[in-house]
Design brief:
By secondary structure, the protein is an all-alpha fold. It folds into two domains: 154 residues, no CATH class; 55 residues, no CATH class. It is 70% helix and 0% strand. The chain contains eight helices and no strands. The two termini are 29 Å apart.
Length: 263
Amino acid sequence: MNDSTAQSDHIIRAASQSLVEQRNGGVHRRARSVGRGSFKLKSQHWMKKVRNIAIGVFALWVGASVIGSIIGGLGFTGVMAVGAATLATLFFLGKYPKMKVPKRADLNTENVRQLVAKTELWLEMQRSRLPKPIAASLSVIGGQLDELEPQLAEVDQMHPTAKEIRKLVGEDLPDMIEGFLKIPESLRYEERSGTTPVKQLENGLEVISRELDSINRQLAQGSIDDLAIRGRYLDYKYSEGIEGENADYGVPLPDFDKQTTAG
């Protein structure tokens, strides 16, 4: 019979390993994206562009074919004109509309489920303006935001955890980066009181990273406990040689069969 504590430890170790993978780049990380949320937003934007290009080029050639059939052929000049129009269509629809990049004010949203992807995309836009070590650390936070996003589907918008996430991700994180970017580049490495603006930003991002890790663990704990209880129940019900003494578990096991029937 498997021990429920061992199951919980295994799950926590797996979660920690996932976090390590994210900090090392992650198997799902895209080279130019801070996280999966921002990558998804960019992919959706480009898919719309591809759709628009396909529709535009198709409509252009259908129109040219109709005109050609009416006038008895487009001729060399007409074909060249259609070709030039096709290139113009590809250029224009490939460039426009430009992707709407979240502004600082857009991060002050009440919906925490939309906050993650917007914050990741906003961080990407600031990355080129930050020192390289700082820019690299944004991928760590991006990985943590990726882990946080699916858990937010179960969080009530008015729950204290949701308010904490809005404050941490929607206010504290962008405020810190914006504050740093306001400092002239020549002063960012100037030491004052034993530290520099760059070190202060690094330390601040580390604090935010630890808080995100803590929130991730808090949100996951309920699922970990539910899985452990389910595992103990299955051991109790199906393991050979078990006669059903609930006292061996220290706490009474829930009767899932009765709960299912009652539902």
